[in-house]
Every structure is written in structure tokens, then in C-alpha cells.
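Task: complex structure prediction.
Instruction: return C-alpha cells for all chains below.
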Amino acid sequence: MSRNILITGANGALGLALAEYFFTKEADCRVFLGVRERRERAEELATRFPGRADLITLEITSPEAWKTALAEIEAKTGALGVLINNAGFHEDALLANMSQDQWSRVLDANLNAVFHGCQAVLPAMMRQRQGRIVNIASLSAISSPAGQTNYAAAKAGVIGLTQSLAKESARMGITVNAVCPGYIEGGLPADWTPEHLKALKMQLPMRRFAKPSEVAAAVFFLASAEASYITGTALKIDGGML
Amino acid sequence: MPTRQRLKELMISELMLDMTADDIGDDTPLFGPAGIGLDSVDALQLVVMIEKNFNFKMADQDQAKRILQSVSTIAEALDQKAAA
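Output:
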């Protein structure tokens, strides 16, 4: 049976890799690429998979926007089978210097948006008695680096939400899992210098960052029928870093 | 099939209960240790199950609490709706 998949943050490096992985590995799936203002790379990807990709404008922090987006998807192709909550960003600062806005923006985008997304897709998944939700958390949820109190708290919250919702929805054929990627190529701050990146790699057991496709492969598995007895997990994808 | 019997069979399949319809009395409490022992997750599933199979939508949590007492209370609510 063909599945409808919604990936938020689909214009970013990981979002694009996730979409491409699904297109390649699941021949009849249809992928909805959740984007906001920045959409040029998602548009380019969609042209490479005609008839299988739709861009969908989605302000993830708005419950109303979720309702509208899901109504659009259902009208086009039927209920959603897979939700991948991938969108998010960090805005680092030491807590002593962090503004209330910096705290709230990061919590809104990384944690509250996951709540809105899960709440929006659940009714249809419950009626179908099947569904897959994969939340992209972060290694920061576990390693809690200095300068990321907002981001680490949000991503740790995502893991908590994932595990709790997994228990609530297990009997309904819905699995809810999270992945915790470490450093990903293409997903690193643009202002990090080559020297800094080189020094960072030296600290990693594999001495390299993850390829986006390596994270996508794990997400694809968790979203597959084969992962039917895996729910509530938070999978580290960090090349042995922690 | 009578409503009560249908409800019991749906509950067994949808809530994955390891029992038969005969094990569920019409008036056996659905929740708590003195009854079948359903939990809050089952309650949510019951609401969805009733909506999907009987086109009966609970108005609010209070109504759900009143109706989801036993197979009989659910059947009575469904029969009342059918008669209305």
C-alpha cells in the first residue's frame, strides 16, 4: 500500500536527505515536503520526483496551520501514514545571557511544534489504527552542551514526549520514535571555521561527521513496517561519540 | 447482531483484550480493578471505536465518563441516539 509521508523542515540538509531516501527506497510513496519561506532546494528535489512530491507550506508552531496542511494532504491523497518532525533550529547562548525570546523561540520550534504535529496527525492515525511518527531529537538532548540550555531542554522534551506518546498509542498500531543525531554534514553552523571543524572531527571516534543519508536510513527503518515492535525509543546516531 | 454483543466483540478486537465476549458482563465496570481493568488509553480508543463504528461522537469528557461505564451504558446511549 502506498504511503503518504510528511517531512517538516524539508528544505534543510537532513530534510532533503530524508525525502530522497524515501523516494529511492519506497517506490510508491508520496512525500509532502513541509517548508516555510526557504523552499528552493525542496522545489528542486520535487522536480526530480514528479508526481511523488508536493511542497506544503507549514508554520509548525501554529496548530491552525497543521490542521490546514493535513486537510490539504487528506484531500489530495488520503490520510497521512508517516510524520517526520524534522524542522527545528538552535539559537545558542549561555543561560546567563539568554533572552526570554531566545528561550521561547527555540522551545516553540523544537518542542511545541512536535506537540502540535503529533496532536494533529493522531486522530486520523487512530482511525486507521496505523501510523509512524519519527521525531528528530538531537544528541544535545543527552549530552546537554554548555550554551544550549534552550535547545537541549527542548530536545530532551522531545524524547520525553516520544516515550510517553509511544505508550499512549501503542495499542492503536502507531509507533512513535526519536533519533538523536550528532554532527551532520551540511547541518553545521555556517560560521564555524574549517579549523574548528577539523578540530571537532579529531574528537570524534570515527573522525568524521554523519552523512545526512546515514541519519535518513535509521529514520526510514523506524518508519517501516519492519520496525513494528519498536516504539518509544530514542536512537543515538553519533558515530560512537557518547 | 445486538448492540451489546457487537460492542463486546469490537472491544476485544480493538483493545486487544485476551478474553471472550462471554467474559464481559453487560454491567461489568469497564474501568478499575473490580471490572475489566481498562485504562485511560483504552478509554481514548473506545471513543474512537464508537465514533468509527456507530457514528456516535462524544460531546465532551463528561459525557464520555457517563457513557463509558459498562457495555450496557454504552449500548443505551447508542440506542437512544438511534431512536432520536
